[in-house]
Amino acid sequence: MNREPGSPGDVVDVLGVGFGPSNLALALAVQEHNERTPDSSRIRASFVEQQAAFGWHRGMLLDGATMQVSFLKDLVTMRDPTSPRSYLNYLQGQGRLADFINNKSLFPSRVEFHDYLEWCAADVRHLVSYGTRAVAVHPVTGPDGEIDQIDVVLRDAQGDGAGSRVVRTRNLVLATGLVPWLPEGVQRGRRIWHNSELLSRLGELPPVGPRRRRYVVIGAGQSAAETTAHLHDREDAAEVHSVFSRYGYSPADDTSFANRIFDPEAVDHFFAASGEVKQMLLDYHANTNYSVVDPELIAELYRRAYQEQVRGPRRLHVHGASRVSSVRSPDPDVDGDGPGAGADGPDIEVDVEVLTTGHHHTITADVVVYATGYRPIDPSGLLGDVGAWCRRADDGELLVDRDYRLHTVEPLTAGVYLQGPTEHTHGISSTLLSTTAVRAGEILDSVLGHRRPEPDLPVAHESGEPATVGQRWGDPGVVTS
Q1: pLDDT tens-place string over residues 130-149
Q2: Angle between helices 21-35 and 436-447 (to 10 degrees)
Q3: What is the secondary structure of 130-147 as a DSSP string?
Q4: Which of 21, 56, 320, 339 has the fewest CB atoms within 10 Å distance of its CB?
Q5: Residue 190 in 3-state DSSP?
């Protein structure tokens, strides 16, 4: 295997695995640190990303969809309001600053915010190796037995694995993101998708005549509601069925006091709290983020359904307090004609149980979309032998220090940081954009040796005691058993 970058003795200060918004924010923080620092004090950083180019939830860049977070919570502003990589500076460069102000909204469109992220990613393109997958981590033991460096094995994400190279680093930052979650037993197919694939999969469908295609959307959260609205707007949509176990869509709590749970200061409070209090806060404020929908979208979907009751034809059907008990699909690679064939081939049969009555009925569909949430990627699979020196709580969760560094024991002194799957120690904002800029600055400070102190708060237990997050990552609006 080849060593990269530079000579065999070359070591980077930071290697980031994954290049979504979290590690992009860290790359920007490193870049800005280096721009104002003498050469001798600069950070050598490198990032790897398995995608061929930067992209963030491309499958849900729907027309009209807006961000659910203020533009001021971009990748830099809450760390440094004077940063040239701010959303406002992006708008100025695009010639849209005045027009954005006149729009009178804190919440940009998802398409525009993605363009901002791409603009930022282009600025640090020299730090990133796209199309590259990290496949293994190996400790590097020094002559005194201390492990202060880590070798990370990299491969071409699209290759056969024959060609590998190694980057040696003093600090490893894992930001591998979330993966789409499907209920047990569900298999993706040509016409059965997770909503993360929505736009690309829709683009692959063969053309049909107006009002000939039947869709089923499973899930109760924002993505499910947005998917339902988007499909209902399509010219080919004959019917759109939304199925979830709640009686109706639940509104997101976007009120000012509740939103304090996303403040940087709230991370200190959460980290210092006992495991019992952490769990209480997660349960109390799940309705700020999990399986909830913007009230305006709920009202819009209800308006559409009611208008169709009045005027017809009925194309939007909302099946609340219901669950999908089975999905019977033909071979996903085979099309068919004749009896039982819909717009795209043989019908998909979706069996639905009404939870309040036990009544069962079947929806025939051409396409089924699961908007059932995401799960974090367990970093243990990548850490390998290094994971043996990472402390865990009684429930098996990795213990994470306040600066997002894994709590490790000797002889491991190299830094291993997590961006994302830290909700059990750092709170509900861990996988969201709200504290991304501040977190990137805290990780950079830690790498530089300015370790963030534990919160100076009166607690009667070990600081950093984790909550038990459980199965929160899936969509609780979907009953799976």
Answers
A1: 999 999 999 999 999 999 99
A2: 50
A3: ESEEEEEEEEE--TTS-B
A4: 339
A5: coil
